[in-house]
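Researcher: For the annotation table, I need structure tokens for Putative dehydrogenase. Please keep the output clean. Sequence:
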Amino acid sequence: MEKVRWGIISTANIAQSQFIPAIFRAENAEVSAIASRSNKVHAIASRLDIPKAYESYEELVADPAIDAVYIPLPNHLHKEWVLKAAAAGKHILCEKPAGLTAADAEEMITACQAAGVKFMEGFMYQLHPQHERVKEIMASGEIGDVKLIRSSHSFYLENRTGDIRMDKKMGGGALYDLGCYCIHAVRHLSEAEPVKVHAVSEIDEAAGIDLSANVNLELDNGMSAIFDCSFDMASRNEYEVIGTKGTIKVPYAFRPDTNAGMGVILVETAGNSRKEEIHGDLYRLEVEHFSSAILTGSPLAVTADSTIRNMRILEACLTANRSTNAVSVDIR
């Protein structure tokens, strides 16, 4: 089978612990190289059995033997390296959020389209089959008319000094790190777009970032959604769909890998309840999905339009963070 040759731009923990092992499990992909800005990359490449190690991102991007790159760099570096990778003719899977602004995302995507390369924002959670099953249950009418979607994504951030998630210039804050998932899930499940945002947040004034945010969304189909995200709460990664006749709860919505890949769906209607379990190798599914799109031209799960819209809503949430008024979203 033909395989996509991947280069990894950064030795970030998510690359080492999740994405690179997933490439080895994938049927249509292989790891060709990894890059860092220090000589530690050689030891990491040796330990992970990666053939080539580069001490600069530029060298990796210039390697003609690489088809696609994975970019798990800090948020503020996404735009720079997407543009450079696109100019070098590499397909790009970039970690969420795509950039710091919707304008950044539009510029990145335009550059990729002009270069004829594929770009996808790394909302890996969507590739797990539990979400399509939730949409099937919603469409079946079992829980009646859907009135509200609620989502939570949080963890308690230890050792905050020096953590990039606490650095405003690097795209820190709970909304950038966690809230973007909740926004995406609301849009994916509802197949609607938020048009108005109201937020109540806890701001770390010294760092200038949001530690927590509680957000109400008004959707263009008349539905409502609520989400919270936080660096100051216990670990949660869940959503709930509430209808006129019942509810659907998904307790491992964004990180089923923390439950050995097992997605759990809890359905309650009129005193009856049931539990469905659906397994999925989350990061392998992401690697194989993007690699297949490169090899066969199959459509991407996270489209360019979806990425830009998600960033517009995220920007509105960030604006609403410091306002007592609702903020409108441009969803053109």
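Researcher: And a one-line annotation?
Model: Residues 70 and 93 are 5 Å apart (CA to CA).
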